[in-house]
Amino acid sequence: MISPSKIGFVVACCLAAYASPILEVDDVVKHAWLTVPQGWVDIGPPPADYIVDLKIALKQGGFEDLVGLLHEISDPLHPSYGRHLSKREVEELIAPDQSTHTIIQDWLVSHDISLTSASYSPARDWLSLPAPIAITEKLLSAKYRTYEHLSTGEQIVRTLSYSLPVALHAHVDLVHPTTMFDRMKAMRTTYMLDAALPAAEDIPLSCNTTVTPACLQALYRTSGYVPQAADKGNKIGVAGYLEQARIHASLIPQFRPDTVGANVTIVSVDGGLNDQSLPGTEADLDVQYTEGLTYPTPNYYYSTPGTAPTINDSVTPPQRDEPYLDWLNYVLALPDEEVPQVFTTSYGGDERSPMNGQCTCPSPFRTRSSVIEHPITRVCGMFAQLAARGSSVIFSSGDGGVRAGTCETNDGTNRTLFQPVFPATCPYITGVGATYQIAPEKGIYFSQGGFSRYFDRPVWQAAAVPPFLAKLGTTYAGLYNLSGRAVPDVSAQGYGFQVVVGGQVESVGGTSASSPTFASIVSLLNDYRIANGRPSLGWLNPLLYSIGVSGFTDILLGNNPGCGTTGFNATEGWDAITGLGTPDFVKLQELLGFI
């Protein structure tokens, strides 16, 4: 049994009589479900001595100011373009007001909780502390239960409702883990190869179905570029989850012989593993292609736990069910010089899954007034912090066509509804769809695209997206959010990638192949800029949708079926299967090299 004293939890008994005005009013529900969310079943109470690793998101002081500055430094037509913020500047902008810290401390002390075991994020906008389950339930007027996912057997400890004193609602965005039932998955699928098709000029015939780094270099015109800023601070990072191991001996020497002897720096985040006896296809795919396309640029692989283990005894399991928070807090705490200029991630989940059930309070599906109270919007804001510091954050758009997991609404009516994938829908992230074949490239059927139900369409999509909607007309009316942030932003090859896993070559596909490919192109552009005394590109989206458009090859063929429909079609201009198209490095180099 783990006792509170063994984990450093302190009960301040002498403060039991502490009087605080926030105790003079009843608690008010912050968030609650009417029923257990779809796909989960209540299997009983957690162990009596279970420890909850509470994370309290405090109201940030100047997030809107941060976003305003981020738009300025990311707009190629603004005088401040490229003037990325420092770690200190970001933290000073978003730091909560002291009154927030004071009232939170009063609240905790009123429940006989000392802050001795608490810790803060670098900006002091997240408060973390371990608390016994009984104390947590009293603190949040909640009743925690253990829930098991019907298809995976994954177990998590959650509550269907939690409350806070009314005075705290203005100071706390959310508390986690409470009512968020989320599942992360890797964007990866394995496919059989098709018969050979005609090849494009100067690109081998085999590249139509068997993709190697050399194929991508030829297709996206990076073959003639040799990185120049490897010793000037340019870096690329791969974020890995779900205990995926990247195997040191698998750097595809047969596909890129000059990388023999190259190494990737492995970074463990919050106990993340990199077990060399357990090769992971996703990890090897990501790293082999970022290394194969950007060598000798330094590559970093961040291993973050992402699966909550089975809860089968009284020992507290590691709470790894919201790994984005752990990864972001880790990266945001790094000194500026240690943060890679581009990150790629091939994981995501149904955008609606954090809200998967019938809610008794306002939700983003009914009003946007409560959006900030939900984890995905707060996590999206953390990506904005990273972008403000000069990093481009790239995510796979998903592998479900127009669906992610399920096509049904979560309002009890079970209506058909297209589902995009988060985090790709976060506006501070560049979402990457998938193509296949090379003469010409086509949007592949699994390339996920659509429109967010959490995030409004940003101003930088105001010109690109409406023409697509006009062509669509009333087709699929009611199945998607007409005014939502549109994904994907861009696309890249995502089929037939040759990956060495456990010493064997596998052929894999998915937008998880597209994301590291596009991120590598961005890294090479950063290399060119840094070598010529320019800053990194940072947040890409305002740039891509303005002067960057002509640096992409428009994809005109393909569709992404799902939910009983043929999905969206690739068409001239932006579309919801391939975005703006696939990158042409030489054109982008000319357009973006010296702005």
UniProtKB/TrEMBL annotation:
- Active site residues per record: E282, D286, S512
Please give the PROSITE patterns that the UniProt record associates with this protein. Answer: SEDOLISIN (PS51695)
Q: Which reaction does it catalyse?
A: Release of an N-terminal tripeptide from a polypeptide
The subcellular localization recorded is: Secreted, Extracellular space
Superkingdom of origin: Eukaryota
For this UniProt entry, which residues form the secretion signal? 1-19
Q: Name one GO molecular function term.
A: metal ion binding
Name its co-factor(s).
Ca(2+)
Q: Name one Pfam family in it.
A: Pro-kuma_activ
Mainly resides where? secreted
Name the UniProt key words of this record, in alphabetical order. Answer: Calcium, Glycoprotein, Hydrolase, Metal-binding, Protease, Secreted, Serine protease, Signal, Virulence, Zymogen
Query: EC number(s) on record?
Result: 3.4.14.10
> What role is this protein assigned?
Secreted tripeptidyl-peptidase which degrades proteins at acidic pHs and is involved in virulence.
| Name of the featured protein | tripeptidyl-peptidase II
The organism is Gloeophyllum trabeum (strain ATCC 11539 / FP-39264 / Madison 617) (Brown rot fungus)
